[in-house]
Design a protein that fits this description.
- Helix content is about 40%, strand content about 5%.
- It has about 290 residues and is an all-alpha fold.
- It is built from eleven helices and two strands; from the N terminus they run αββαααααααααα.
- The longest helix is centred in the N-terminal third of the chain and has 26 residues.
- It starts with a helix and ends in a 21-residue tail after the last helix.
């Protein structure tokens, strides 16, 4: 009887050790950003201090602040990320997650975490990866190639406007890019939560950056977890650049694209058809801005 009791105790203890080892291995993630290596252990402490209130102790986006936040915090357990350099449906690179943390997300409650050191942010990336088993079984996708931006011309902007109409971007973003298209109020994310399209009138920053290259990347990778798809199978690189040039004319800034567009409109505005149902040939969103 004593030997049986000891055997049960031994097996029970072994089970506890195995469970603990499994839990520890799940947290033993690393990240690699340039010459930095991030580690989950110090990342855990940073997460508890800065991130848990929104993203939750389990990384599921259910922190105590989440009910009052719109859009909702990212659910790291799904390993689905909007801003990536990798093709749609693939994991982002460590640097993608690092850059998102550094940049923050415009029109959301996610701030820029520049006060944290680069090592701090690398450690947080490692810890964030511990919330989903996908990081242990899958590799990040291969970053897409962004070709050199072609020279800005009025023909490029006009073709970009044609694409905005043809690809029905206006149905979500609106004829003038004000996020007021007929489908805007019906959009939901991958958790069936309401989500708003980007409003180009809102400022210079996009969801995933500020440069023309960042905007090109959004077209070609999509914003996973949102209704914004990848257009990699529908757009040639030249067309994607034309769309970038047109969308810059919708922003309330004196960009080179906006200056060229405004000058052209001064003598050609009457040639344009409004963007929308049955409309849109070449040119800007219902006369541009």
């Amino acid at each position: 009887m004593k030997s049986n009791t000891r055997l049960v105790a031994l097996l029970s203890g072994l089970g506890v050790l195995l469970c603990a080892a499994g839990a520890n291995s799940a947290r033993a993630q690393t990240s690699h950003i340039g010459n930095l290596t991030g580690h989950a252990a110090p990342g855990s402490k940073l997460y508890q201090r800065y991130c848990v209130g929104c993203h939750g102790a389990d990384g599921d986006g259910a922190g105590e602040n989440a009910p009052w936040i719109d859009p909702k915090p990212r659910d790291f357990t799904l390993a689905v990320f909007k801003c990536r350099s990798t093709p749609t449906g693939t994991l982002p690179t460590d640097e993608d997650v690092f850059n998102a943390m550094t940049r923050g997300f415009v029109t959301t409650n996610m701030p820029q975490w520049l006060p944290l050191t680069r090592q701090n942010r690398a450690d947080l990336v490692a810890y964030i990866k511990s919330f989903s088993p996908k990081w242990k079984t899958l590799k990040p996708g291969t970053p897409i190639t962004i070709p050199a931006e072609p020279r800005l011309t009025i023909e490029s902007i006009l073709h970009g406007r044609q694409l905005y109409q043809k690809m029905e971007c206006w149905k979500c973003h609106g004829p003038k890019g004000h996020a007021d298209g007929p489908s805007a109020a019906t959009l939901t994310d991958n958790k069936d939560l309401p989500i708003r399209p980007y409003d180009f009138e809102s400022g210079s920053r996009f969801m995933c950056g500020v440069t023309n290259q960042d905007l090109y990347k959004i077209f070609m990778t999509g914003l996973d977890g949102t209704p914004m798809p990848s257009f990699a199978d529908n757009l040639e690189p030249a067309g994607a650049w034309d769309l970038v040039h047109f969308l810059r004319t919708l922003q309330p800034f004196d960009t080179p694209e906006a200056a060229l567009w405004k000058a052209w409109l001064a003598s050609h505005a009457g040639e344009l058809k409004p963007i929308g149902p049955g409309g849109g040939g070449g040119g800007g969103g219902g006369g541009g801005r």
